[in-house]
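Researcher: I'd like a candidate sequence for this fold, 80 residues long. If you have to choose between options at a position, lean toward the conservative one.
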């Protein structure tokens, strides 16, 4: 994968989180330009669907990693 895509994605997530922390949605609606709001309105459904799918994949991966070992996957360590 192109490292610039990953860098851009990481930067975008941090910037969006920063904006969400600094500007309540009602203030953004009042203060952001019509162009900014139009771009958000037009692009958000696709971005949201993609982000929800990615979040689900990452959540599933992390849930599997956090699950306790069972059966053959489990080896007792130590003695006694």
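Model: Candidate sequence:
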């Amino acid at each position: 994968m192109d490292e610039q895509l990953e860098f851009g994605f990481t930067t975008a997530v941090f910037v969006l989180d920063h904006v969400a922390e600094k500007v309540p949605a009602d203030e953004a609606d009042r203060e952001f330009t019509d162009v900014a709001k139009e771009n958000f309105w037009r692009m958000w459904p696709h971005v949201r669907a993609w982000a929800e799918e990615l979040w689900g994949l990452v959540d599933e991966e992390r849930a599997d990693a956090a699950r306790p070992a069972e059966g053959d996957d489990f080896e007792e360590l130590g003695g006694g």
